[in-house]
Amino acid sequence: MTRRITPAVAAAFAAIYLIWGSTYLAIKFAIATLPPLTMMGIRSLAAGGLLYMWGRWRGGEPPRLADWKAAGLIGALLFLGAHGGLSWAEGRVPSGVAALFIATIPLWMTLIQASIEGAAVFTKRTVTGLAAGTLGIVVLVGRGPGTLWQGEPVDPLGAAVLILAALSWSVGTAMAQRRPRRTSLAVTSGSYLLAGGALLLAAGSLAGELRDLRVDAISPGSLAALGYLIGFGSVIAFGAYAWLIRRRSLAAVSTYAFVNPVVAVFLGWSLGGESLNPRVLVAAALVVAAVVAILSGRAAHREAGPSIPRTAETARAGRSYDAGRRLPGEASIHRASPRNGRQRDVWTPRAPLRIDDQPERR
């Protein structure tokens, strides 16, 4: 039976589709007069502080020292490597094209999943998606005769940084999903943002950004774009995403991955004055098709996975376990004692998360 689309659900999907798709152009406007690493560091610290305080106010436990150490590593991958690389590369690559490179994250996630689960993840759809995504990147950076190659190819250094940024996000996501979460999602995400933001500011300082920064040269447009990235990109859209994954299937929520680059390319062309030539259009079609194929292939792999035989342990538990369902010893959620008058869900870690699950993003 089809689930009814309520106004709240429609608004949440609009947030992750449109807001996240528009953040690429917002970054371009922000770095017009703000240094990229420093700008992204301010964004991460501000958004992380808001999420962390909100999570603590809702009863989330503070992270332990070991959690902060993990947050430093994961924050370095997600925000210093991925967001920092993206903001720096957008000084050399159009925002819509940058979105196409970042949209290859499902390709990297599939390869990471294969390194853990084996070659069984390579269904016909995922292999087709990997080939299409690779071809899309070749179209963006390649040279040759004919209409397809009209316009200058993407700056090779910018392209390399964007590919590494997508890889960094994928590795950080896999690490975050496999690490047991002892407190609320907001506190955990806030700790990642805070750690990543501090590292971004440190990297910006080492790169001489703070030394060369002229406060009187910062434009109102850059400040407005930074505010949009903090309030809309990191708080509202992430809140909508966290709300949606509790109410809709992962497959449905994952559709943002192929809507975002379309939105980014259109906004870059219509509002950012970026070129929309055959090279970009063909690459966009290939990358979007690749993401669709990979996401559908991963869903088919989960549904068609081999059944886990009934064992003495499962017999004692009174049930058998099929692939894709919670296995004996996996994490569970229970209701903890009230704190500040509120009950809260607490994650009880017993086994790592599967990396199929969607990343905590932006």
From TrEMBL:
SUPFAM superfamilies: Multidrug resistance efflux transporter EmrE. Residues 342-362 have a biased composition (Basic and acidic residues). Its main location: membrane. It comes from the Bacteria. Residues 305-362 are annotated as: Disordered. InterPro entries: AA-Vitamin_Transporters, EamA_dom, EmrE-like. The keyword Electron transport does not apply. Keywords: Membrane, Transmembrane, Transmembrane helix. Residues 14-141, 157-295 form the EamA domain. It is found in: Membrane. It is a multi-pass membrane protein. One of its GO terms (cellular component) is membrane. This is EamA family transporter.
